Amino acid sequence: MNKAEQFIDELIQQQALPPEYKALVEEYLWPLVQDMAEIYQRRTQVEPVMQNALPWVVGLQGTQGSGKSTVCLFIKVLLEECFDLNVVILSIDDFYKTRQERMTLSKTIHPLLVTRGVPGTHDIDLAMETLNKLSKLNNGQSCSVPSFNKIFDDRSNKTEWPVIKNKVNIILFEGWCMGIPYQEKSALDNPINELEKFEDSNVQWRLFVNNQLKNEYRNLFRKLDDLIVLQAPSFKCVYQWRLLQETKLARQTEMSKSGKQMHIQTSKQIERFISHYERLTRHALDVLPEDASWVIELDKEHNMKSLIRHEKLVRLE
User: Fold this and answer.
1) Which DSSP state fits 96?
2) Cα 211 to Cα 206: distance, rounded to the nearest angstrom
3) What average pLDDT is seen over the chain?
4) Whole-prediction pTM
5) Of the four listed, 30, 187, 206, 224, which is most buried by Cβ atoms within 10 Å?
6) How far apart are the C-alpha atoms of 196 and 98, rounded to whole Å?
7) What does the alpha-carbon distance between residue 229 and residue 59 come to, in Å, rounded to a whole number?
8) How many Å apart are CA 71 and CA 152, to the nearest integer?
9) Tell me, what DSSP letter sits at residue 137?
10) Three-state SS for 309?
C-alpha cells in the first residue's frame, strides 16, 4: 500500500479533495484497483494470445455529479503507477454531437434534442471509431481522441484533442447513460415530470431516445467487457450534485480569456436540465446494479460507503 498511498496523497492534493477522501479511496477504490489488476493479469495468463488482444473495456456509470471523473482518475493513476498498465479514460460526454448538429435535430425531430445528454445527442459512429483506433495502437504509435468543451457547449477543435500513445491495456469508458438498457414502449406512456408532460406531450422525444438506446447505443454498450456502477441513493440527490458541478464549471470561466459565448446554467436551468435525464436515471438506479461487475454505493453527500463485487458477472474472454 505504501506506493499506492504516495499517489493517493498526490491526487488528493492535485484535485483539491478533502483529507478524509483518502480513507474512502483506501477502503473502496484501492481494493477495486487491485481487483481489476488481478483480473487483467488473469486475462493475459488464461490464454497467451490475450497478450496481443484488444484492450479490456470497462464502463463506469453514475448519475450527474456522482464523481465519475474523479473515480476514473484514481483508478487510472493507481493502475498505471502500481501495476504498470496503460489506461485510457474516455467520457461519453466527449462524443456529443456538435451544437449545430443538435440544433438540426431539434428542428427535424424534436426541440428537446438541442439539449446535450440524452441518447441521440452523441456521435456513436465517432465513439465506435475511437474505440477501434485505440484497439489497434501499438507501442510507438499514437492517435487523438475527441473532447467536448462544456463551457462553450460544443466539440473542441481537433487541434485540442488529447493524444494517446502506445498500446492500450485498459479503457475506462465513463458516462451517465453508460450501459443503460432501453425501456419497454408501454413504460413511456406516462410522463415522469413536467418537462415530459408539457414539452413532450405526444411522446415523440421519449420514443426517439428509447429507440436510440435500443439500437445504436446498444451496439456501443456491447463493446463493454465489464461495468462499474456508482450507485446514488436516489434521484433526489442529483439536483444538488449537478448544482455543485455547475458551480465548479463557473469558476473555470473566470480563467477563460476566450470571447466565445459561455453556457453556465442557473439553479432553475439546472432543475430543468436534469429533467431531461430523470426517466433514464431512475431506470438506471433500478436495473443497472444487478448487471454491473462492481457497484460502489454512495451516500447523499456522494461519499463512497460500500463496494460490492458481482463475481459471476466479471467476464473473461
Assistant:
1) B
2) 9
3) 90
4) 0.90
5) 206
6) 24
7) 8
8) 25
9) -
10) strand
